[in-house]
């Protein structure tokens, strides 16, 4: 599971990231985007956002 969260999210407080990150078991990663609001990480840093998504998928694809 990939968690992507902006530090300026006003809908889901940034403080919740660690709490929801710790809940599921299994493979997981998180990305933090400074100054990004709710669902705005892809606009704040599109290259880093998409590289993170694609890298995560590549790591966890079944052969």
Describe the SSE topology.
Elements: E1 2-6, H1 16-22, E2 29-33, H2 41-44, H3 46-60
Parallel strand pairs: 1-2
Total count of strands: 2
**What's the alpha carbon Rg, rounded to whole Å?**
12 Å
Strand order of the largest sheet: 1-2
Number of helices: 3
Overall geometry comes to: flat
- The termini sit apart by 18 Å
What is the percent of helical residues? 40-55%
Query: Which secondary-structure class do the elements indicate?
Result: alpha+beta
Mean pLDDT: 93
Low-confidence stretches: none
Largest sheet: 2 strands, parallel
Can you write the helix and strand succession as a string? EHEHH
Strand content is 15-25%
Describe this protein with a few key phrases.
single chain, 63 residues, alpha+beta, two-stranded parallel sheet, 2 strands
Can you offer a commentary on this structure?
- It is a single chain.
- The protein contains 3 helices and 2 strands; from the N terminus they run βαβαα.
- Helix 1 links the parallel strand 1 and strand 2.
- It starts with a strand and ends with a helix.
Quick gist of this model?
This protein has about 60 residues and is an alpha+beta fold. The chain has helices at about 15-20, 40-45, 45-60; strands spanning about 1-5, 30-35.
């Amino acid at each position: 599971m990939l968690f992507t969260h902006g530090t300026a999210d006003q809908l889901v407080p940034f403080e919740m990231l660690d709490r929801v990150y710790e809940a599921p078991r299994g493979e997981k990663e998180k990305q933090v985007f400074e100054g990004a609001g709710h669902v705005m990480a892809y606009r704040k840093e599109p290259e880093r956002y998409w590289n993170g998504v694609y890298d995560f998928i590549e790591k966890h694809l079944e052969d």
